[in-house]
From TrEMBL:
Pfam families membership: Ferritin_2 (PF13668)
Entry protein name: Ferritin-like domain-containing protein
Superkingdom of the source species: Eukaryota
Length: 135
Protein backbone atom coordinates (compact mmCIF):
# COMPACT_ATOMS: atom_id res chain seq x y z
CA UNK A 1 0.00 0.00 0.00
CA UNK A 2 2.89 2.39 0.64
CA UNK A 3 4.03 1.90 -2.95
CA UNK A 4 0.55 2.75 -4.22
CA UNK A 5 0.46 5.91 -2.10
CA UNK A 6 3.84 6.99 -3.50
CA UNK A 7 2.66 6.44 -7.06
CA UNK A 8 -0.56 8.33 -6.41
CA UNK A 9 1.35 11.19 -4.81
CA UNK A 10 3.59 11.49 -7.85
CA UNK A 11 0.53 11.91 -10.06
CA UNK A 12 -0.38 15.01 -8.07
CA UNK A 13 2.89 16.88 -8.52
CA UNK A 14 2.90 20.15 -10.43
CA UNK A 15 -0.35 22.07 -10.36
CA UNK A 16 -1.73 19.82 -7.65
CA UNK A 17 1.12 20.79 -5.34
CA UNK A 18 -0.58 24.20 -5.22
CA UNK A 19 -4.25 23.22 -5.54
CA UNK A 20 -4.30 20.42 -2.97
CA UNK A 21 -2.74 22.35 -0.07
CA UNK A 22 -4.98 25.31 -0.86
CA UNK A 23 -8.00 23.07 -0.37
CA UNK A 24 -6.62 21.06 2.51
CA UNK A 25 -6.02 24.03 4.82
CA UNK A 26 -9.66 25.17 4.99
CA UNK A 27 -10.85 21.55 5.14
CA UNK A 28 -8.67 20.98 8.20
CA UNK A 29 -10.08 24.06 9.91
CA UNK A 30 -13.68 23.21 8.96
CA UNK A 31 -13.21 19.68 10.28
CA UNK A 32 -11.96 21.09 13.59
CA UNK A 33 -14.87 23.56 13.59
CA UNK A 34 -17.52 20.85 13.27
CA UNK A 35 -15.82 18.43 15.63
CA UNK A 36 -15.42 21.10 18.30
CA UNK A 37 -19.02 22.27 18.14
CA UNK A 38 -20.41 18.74 18.15
CA UNK A 39 -18.28 17.96 21.19
CA UNK A 40 -19.62 21.08 22.94
CA UNK A 41 -23.34 20.92 22.09
CA UNK A 42 -25.79 18.05 22.59
CA UNK A 43 -28.87 17.31 20.53
CA UNK A 44 -30.95 18.91 23.28
CA UNK A 45 -28.79 22.04 23.09
CA UNK A 46 -29.66 22.35 19.39
CA UNK A 47 -33.37 21.88 20.04
CA UNK A 48 -33.42 24.23 23.05
CA UNK A 49 -31.71 26.87 20.92
CA UNK A 50 -34.57 26.72 18.40
CA UNK A 51 -32.97 24.55 15.74
CA UNK A 52 -34.90 21.65 14.17
CA UNK A 53 -34.62 18.21 15.76
CA UNK A 54 -32.66 16.91 12.76
CA UNK A 55 -30.06 19.74 12.80
CA UNK A 56 -27.40 18.03 14.92
CA UNK A 57 -27.57 14.90 12.76
CA UNK A 58 -27.05 16.98 9.63
CA UNK A 59 -24.01 18.66 11.17
CA UNK A 60 -22.66 15.22 12.09
CA UNK A 61 -22.92 14.28 8.39
CA UNK A 62 -21.12 17.45 7.34
CA UNK A 63 -18.41 16.78 9.95
CA UNK A 64 -17.92 13.28 8.53
CA UNK A 65 -17.63 14.72 5.00
CA UNK A 66 -15.05 17.25 6.12
CA UNK A 67 -13.02 14.54 7.86
CA UNK A 68 -13.16 12.43 4.69
CA UNK A 69 -11.93 15.42 2.66
CA UNK A 70 -9.03 15.91 5.09
CA UNK A 71 -8.10 12.22 4.89
CA UNK A 72 -8.25 12.18 1.08
CA UNK A 73 -6.24 15.35 0.57
CA UNK A 74 -3.77 14.46 3.33
CA UNK A 75 -3.09 11.06 1.82
CA UNK A 76 -2.42 12.67 -1.56
CA UNK A 77 0.01 15.19 -0.03
CA UNK A 78 1.72 12.76 2.33
CA UNK A 79 4.34 14.42 4.53
CA UNK A 80 3.48 17.81 3.02
CA UNK A 81 -0.08 17.72 4.35
CA UNK A 82 -1.28 20.58 6.53
CA UNK A 83 -1.73 19.59 10.16
CA UNK A 84 -4.46 20.86 12.45
CA UNK A 85 -3.61 23.45 15.05
CA UNK A 86 -5.52 24.98 17.94
CA UNK A 87 -8.52 26.92 16.70
CA UNK A 88 -10.81 29.31 18.51
CA UNK A 89 -14.12 29.75 16.72
CA UNK A 90 -16.49 32.53 17.83
CA UNK A 91 -19.64 30.49 18.40
CA UNK A 92 -21.37 30.49 21.77
CA UNK A 93 -24.51 28.50 21.00
CA UNK A 94 -25.79 25.99 18.46
CA UNK A 95 -27.48 28.79 16.51
CA UNK A 96 -24.31 30.90 16.31
CA UNK A 97 -22.44 27.73 15.29
CA UNK A 98 -25.03 27.11 12.54
CA UNK A 99 -24.72 30.69 11.28
CA UNK A 100 -20.91 30.48 11.17
CA UNK A 101 -21.18 27.10 9.46
CA UNK A 102 -23.17 28.67 6.65
CA UNK A 103 -20.48 31.31 6.19
CA UNK A 104 -17.61 28.80 6.21
CA UNK A 105 -19.37 26.51 3.73
CA UNK A 106 -20.03 29.47 1.43
CA UNK A 107 -16.33 30.28 1.41
CA UNK A 108 -15.53 26.62 0.73
CA UNK A 109 -17.92 26.43 -2.22
CA UNK A 110 -16.46 29.66 -3.63
CA UNK A 111 -12.92 28.29 -3.35
CA UNK A 112 -13.84 25.14 -5.25
CA UNK A 113 -15.72 27.16 -7.87
CA UNK A 114 -12.68 29.37 -8.37
CA UNK A 115 -10.33 26.42 -8.75
CA UNK A 116 -12.69 24.36 -10.89
CA UNK A 117 -10.90 25.21 -14.13
CA UNK A 118 -7.65 23.76 -12.72
CA UNK A 119 -9.20 20.82 -10.91
CA UNK A 120 -10.97 19.57 -14.06
CA UNK A 121 -7.71 19.53 -16.03
CA UNK A 122 -5.83 17.19 -13.72
CA UNK A 123 -6.16 13.85 -11.98
CA UNK A 124 -7.03 15.49 -8.72
CA UNK A 125 -8.83 14.20 -5.62
CA UNK A 126 -10.51 17.60 -5.33
CA UNK A 127 -12.77 16.67 -8.26
CA UNK A 128 -15.03 14.48 -6.13
CA UNK A 129 -15.06 17.01 -3.30
CA UNK A 130 -15.96 19.75 -5.77
CA UNK A 131 -18.97 17.75 -7.00
CA UNK A 132 -20.14 17.19 -3.43
CA UNK A 133 -19.73 20.87 -2.50
CA UNK A 134 -21.77 21.86 -5.55
CA UNK A 135 -24.81 20.13 -4.09
Amino acid sequence: MIVIERKVTHLYLGLNSVVLPAHLRPSVSRSAFYTGALNNFTGDDFINDGLPQWARGRFEQIAAHEQAHVQLLSSALGANATQACNYSFPYTSPSSFAALSQLLEGVGVSAYAGAAQYIRKTRNPCRGIMRMKAR
